[in-house]
Write a structure and sequence with these properties.
Helix content: 25-40%
Largest sheet: 7 strands, mixed
Pfam families: DUF4440 (PF14534)
Protein name: DUF4440 domain-containing protein
Shape: globular
CATH class: Alpha Beta
CATH topology: Nuclear Transport Factor 2, Chain: A
Distance between the termini: 32 Å
Strand content: over 45%
Organism: Micromonospora auratinigra
Order of helices and strands: HHEEHEEEEE
Number of strands: 7
Number of helices: 3
Number of domains: 1
Structural class: alpha+beta
């Protein structure tokens, strides 16, 4: 479990620091993201947007402790995330969102397979 928590922290750092080799390694080929706006992105579209800086994370970190549900081959993480980003040529946006990530153990390696963010309306 500690390994997956560290992987999640590394995943968030890789997105903010634009470290695409780490991001590619952590996200499964069939990874899917549901954004706060309800859009679905594949690994290719999501990481492609990050790589091209159409989606630029300026800050992405847990704002609470990370809750964990675990079984031998599946770990689900849930936390409140503080996110600051820029999308395309738009101004910076800051939001607070519940974030849920699903990691699966595949061939002995943990990999992120699903993420969903739900924005908190203040």
């Amino acid at each position: 479990m500690a390994q997956v928590l560290e992987l999640e922290r590394a995943r968030l750092r890789s997105l903010v620091e634009w470290d695409m080799s780490v991001a590619e390694r952590i996200h499964a080929d069939d990874y899917e993201l549901i954004t706060p706006a309800g859009q679905t992105h594949t690994k290719a579209t999501y990481l492609g947007d990050v790589a091209s800086k159409r989606l630029e994370y300026l800050h992405f970190a847990p704002d609470t402790s990370i809750a964990v549900r675990a079984s031998p081959d599946l770990i689900v993480l849930r936390y409140l995330a503080r996110i600051r980003l820029s999308v395309g040529v738009a101004d910076e946006v800051e939001l607070l969102a519940w974030h849920t990530d699903h990691y699966e153990k595949r061939d002995g390696t943990w990999t992120a397979v699903w993420s969903q963010a739900t924005e908190i309306q203040v």
